[in-house]
Amino acid sequence: MTGLVRELVPTVGQAAIDDVLARVRDAPVLEPFCDELISACDAVSRALLGDVAARRMPELVALAYWLRRSSSIALRDGFAEGDTDVAVLRPRGVAFHVPPTNVDTMAMYSLALSMLVGNRNVVRISPRAGAALERICSALNVALADPAHAAVRAGTALISYGHEHAPTAACSAACDVRVLWGGDATIAALRAIPLTPGAHEIAFADRFSLAAVAVDAWEAAAEPERAELARRLFNDAYWFDQNGCASPRLVLWRGPPGAADRASSELFALLDAELRQRGLELALGAETAKQAFVAGAAIDRPVAAVRRFSNELTVVTLTSLDGLRRDHPAGGLFLEATVSDLADFAAVTTRKDQTMTAFGFPADELRAFATAAAGRGVDRIVPFGEALSFGRHWDGMDLLRELTREVVIDAHAPAAVRLRA
Amino acid sequence: LPSSPARDALLDAPAYSLGGGEKERLLAAELSRLTAWHREACPPYARVLDALFPEAHAAEGLSDQPWLPVSLFKTHELRSVPEDEVFKVLTSSGTTGQAVSRIVLDRDATAVQTRTLARVMTRLLGPERRPMLVIDARATVADRRSFSARAAGIRGMTTFGRAPVFALRDDMTLDRDAVAAFAAEHRDAPVLLFGFTFMVWRHFVQELAAGELDLPGAVLVHSGGWKKLQDEAVDDARFKHALAELAGIRQVSNFYGMVEQIGTVFLECEHGHLHAPDAADVLIRDPRTWEPLGPGEQGVVQVVSALPTSYPGHSLMTEDLGVVTQRDGCACGRRGATIALRGRIPKAELRGCGDTHARELEAA
Q1: Mean pLDDT of the residues in chain A
Q2: Which DSSP letter does residue A306 get?
Q3: Which end of chain B has fewer CB atoms surrounding its CB within 10 Å, N or C?
Q4: Cβ proximity of A149 and A32 under 8 Å
Q5: Cβ neighbours of B357 in A, within 8 Å
Q6: Residues B110 and B116: beta-carbon distance below 8 Å
Q7: How do residues A207-258 score in pLDDT, each as one tens digit?
Q8: Are A290 and A332 in contact (CB under 8 A)?
Q9: Which segments of chain B does DSSP mark as H helices, in order?
Q10: Residues of chain B whose pLDDT is less than 70?
Q11: C-alpha distances in angstroms, A15 versus A9, A159, A282, B116, B182?
Q12: CA angle A67–A68–A73, rounded 5-degree value
């Protein structure tokens, strides 16, 4: 297997993929959440917060907070509950990450979770990666240059290459767990490249996400609270151009139709004002894609009305959720529908549905919904503003558990066995 | 569609004779009538109007007319004639794997399209049919059932020439003997050359040695756009210069049109300007407010045409950027608007976690 790649972390320059893999494979195995690991993540956090260019990007500020020592310790405490007197959680070995090209921060979240449980890591970075990723690499290189993080440095590689088959094949053959982000087509393409028989794979398929509003709670909310909800919806939807797997694309109004219509007018007027105040402008191509989508939807979906506020906001009102199609152009288009009960959505939810950002529902109503959805759809129900908050649970999986092996220990052999021996 | 005074005036006017407020009035009246006609004849179109243009029935001026996004024809079949009256279905060119537009024509629409094209071509080429050299291969048009944009374009143009000779072999290499024989036979005579812009550059211009051909009486008509040539920094000026140097061709006319809107044929005049034909016009819209812009202001190109009767394509928002350079003012004497194109609206590269690595793999 030959193949040259560009190494970005821990050193910058051309490297042979086999050399990179040999270095990572031979690096020391670290104890999950050991001091060096937590300290290394904290050093990345500090490097990001000390970087003027990084501080200008809100997604990097959120990442930096997520990497702080206190966050890692909270993760460790939750993880430690898995270590019992009959089981210990150990790293799987070498992890190969293929993060999404267009969400730079995902590379670091994926790496950090895997790193913290003691895996050694190779991360494939697209040559088209953006400015945020440059800041992340720079922060990692600062953090890993510290001799106190020498073992993490030895077991970490971020490498950049294009469409070449060889590096992906080499990494896939060398890893114990492969982490595939980036949707259905990426997964289909990369699954054709074999892993070793014992290796594990975590794959994140294309998803669809929604927001749900209890209309009675909206009516009871005062003006400042409504404005805050609109701001949070803005963050949830527009941070990744409404194109993240958790970005809401459908708004469900739970309540009587007339009141729901009023609430919709009010919320989207506030969202429109928020967009104008921030001066967000998406690429013109996003608007032309939405116009074509909306015209097509008018033909073959149950569309009652279309409200176009600006190039950044179009609202398409559906008369029914029956046969709800999840294809969507992103870039500021909201489908909306009114239901009398969340159970109406539970009836149509599918495996594709990931995150529901919810406002105003009693906890037992959400629990009843999750139960009625019966595991077919919706993996997360979170408050407005938290759609993109990454954590150990994602797509219905506990990632810390997926990235480790559980070694069970039964020290008490049955008496009969002892007798025969 | 029954005729109307406005329709007759638009379709029967001598080439490029309409302009000013008269043209706008005639077109606006006919477009309103077409909107009502298609609403009745094409239920999917009616649904789009109801959802997106609830005020459409009140449209009076040219800029009030509802429009469809041109790419809608890639995802939906829109037809305003009964299925058994479909005479042919045109498809847009598109690279493999891309969705193509499907445009439904009946006999009437086909006849009107042919007549309109003839009128603008005659103005450029004169009434005599010229000997013709097609810068393409015979194989491209060999399959009579193929209605690809390239085959349809070549077939359409051959009606304006005679005794067509194909300059390329079926493997797309230049047939030097055929080309030399054509040039020798018609040394100083008026001839017609036609090809797609990219094909003309790649398989004709780049293959010719300096002075290899001399066709001073030729008019070269080309179409298809500059997109594929951008990487090689080939623009209109370089294209024309090379054709003059290598083949002695002095009259080169670009041709902007789209399969989705038969009749909107913008043909380049002797002064280098692309002219809207009589039965069609162009509006430039602000890409944020979508309000119409004035001459000289760049925006999104909307094309309107009285011709499409078999499908609701009389008012389309393209994905092209452009500018109206003048109205009724070209030194060539043609009336109506002239336009300059400024490239396509790039596909948005949205952030997000969907399928980006796969797209890189496909692009490889």
Answers
A1: 94
A2: E
A3: C
A4: no
A5: 98, 100-101, 126, 182, 186, 189-190
A6: no
A7: 999 999 999 999 999 999 999 999 999 999 998 899 888 999 999 999 999 9
A8: yes
A9: 5-12, 20-41, 43-52, 72-75, 107-125, 138-142, 149-158, 176-185, 197-199, 236-247, 356-363
A10: 93-97, 144-147, 263, 351-364
A11: 11, 9, 37, 62, 58
A12: 100
Residue type (1 letter), A178: R
C-alpha–C-alpha distance, residues B112 and B277, integer Å: 13
* Cα→Cα distances B109→B93, B106, B118, B230, Å: 20, 5, 14, 35
* Set of chain A residues whose Cβ sits within 8 Å of the Cβ of B76: 296, 299-300
Nearest to B356 among A100, A292, A306 (CB): A100
DSSP-derived secondary structure for B236-266: HHHHHHHHHHHH---EEEEEEEETTEEEEEE
Using alpha carbons, select from A255, A337, A269, A351 the residue that is nearest to residue A297: A337
Which residue from B2, B5, B20, B3 is spatially nearest to B278, judged by alpha carbons?
Answer: B20
Of A247, A286, A303, the CB nearest to B51: A303
Distance CA B9, CA B20 (A): 14
* Full-model pTM: 0.87
A96 contacts A171 by C-beta, under 8 angstroms: yes
Q: Is there a cis peptide before residue A10, judged by omega within 30 degrees of 0?
A: yes
**B351: chain A residues, CB-CB within 8 Å:** 102-103, 240-241, 243-244
Q: Which residues of B touch A295 (CB under 8 A)?
A: 48, 52, 68-69, 72
φ and ψ at residue A411, rounded to 5 degrees = -85, -5
Q: Which two tokens stand for residue A152?
A: 């993490």
Could you give the percent of chain A with pLDDT greater than 90?
Answer: 83
Higher pLDDT, B229 or A42: A42
- ipTM value for the complex: 0.89
Closest CA to A135 of A38, A56, A68, A39: A56
What was the pLDDT predicted at A63? Answer: 95
Residue appearing with tokens 């980006």: B356
End-to-end C-alpha distance for chain B, whole angstroms: 49
Contacts of residue B266, defined as CB under 8 A and 6 or more positions apart, other chains included, come to: B255, B256, B257, B274, B275, B276, B277, B282, B339
Give me the total of CB pairs closer than 8 Å, taking one residue from chain A and one from chain B: 150
| Segment A254-273 mean pLDDT | 98
Shortest distance between the Cα of B29 and any Cα of chain A, in A, equals 24
